[in-house]
Design a protein that fits this description.
Elements (H helix, E strand, L loop, with lengths): L1 E6 L7 H12 L5 E5 L17 H12 L2 E6 L8 H10 L11 E6 L7 H11 L14 E3 L15 H25 L1
Parallel strand pairs: 1-2, 1-3, 3-4, 4-5
The chain binds ligand FNR.
């Protein structure tokens, strides 16, 4: 199973990027996680949609080639980041590669509620006609107060959170496999 990870924070020391790397390494025997860049994508604009740059076409091709997408979202002012929305807008247009492709989402924030609002908005966005990506109900992975749960090197050291994500993976992986088989 090949999963594309789209991380909504573009900053170098992003906790969400570290969370994606934790998932990539911990479950490497169960699925391949390819972390995709979104910081270099131009702002979506209908004027350039029909002649997109290679950054855009490569990004879309990588998503098209994946069996499923893992969204790793920060929360900015109670919703997803602008960078993530921009990537989603591109994906909703050229070839509409998300249609029917299953999604899983996780998120980390420094606030207590761990991206709960951002993830609710993201689920809603994924149901837009240009995306139509199924998301397993429940199964939320909300990592709040993430700065207290990672060490200086960015390792996830909170045992409860590690165990919780193990359980979420056990739950979501068979569902992603089934959905991607239906989709392909
Ligand atoms: C934040 N942060 C934040 N946290 C939260 O729990 N709820 C929120 O609504 C917001 N809003 C917000 C807006 C903006 C513009 C910034 C820069 C930050 C704090 C946020 O959780 C923290 O900066 C995380 O470290 C961002 O994720 P990354 O970049 O570490 O992945």
């Amino acid at each position: 199973m090949k999963i594309a990870a789209i991380v909504g924070s573009t900053r170098q020391n992003s906790y969400n990027l570290k969370l994606a790397k934790h998932i990539q390494k911990r479950y490497e025997d169960r699925f391949t996680l390819q972390i995709l860049e979104i910081g270099h994508l131009p702002f979506y604009n209908q004027d350039i949609e029909h002649d997109p740059s290679s950054e855009v076409t490569d990004f879309i091709q990588n998503v098209a080639d994946a069996d499923a997408v893992l969204w790793v979202t920060p929360e900015y002012n109670g919703t997803i980041s602008g960078a993530l929305k921009n990537a989603i807008d591109w994906l909703s247009r050229i070839d509409q590669v998300m249609i029917g492709k299953p999604s899983w989402m996780v998120g980390a924030s420094m606030g207590a509620l761990g991206t709960v609002k951002a993830q609710a908005h993201l689920r809603d966005i994924l149901f837009a006609p240009g995306l139509s990506s199924p998301v397993l109900p429940g199964n939320e992975v909300l990592v709040g107060a993430v700065h207290e749960k990672m060490d200086e090197q960015g390792n996830l050291i909170d045992e409860g959170t590690v165990a919780f994500i193990d359980g979420a993976v056990d739950n979501v992986l068979p569902w992603l496999e089934k959905q991607s088989a239906v989709h392909s």
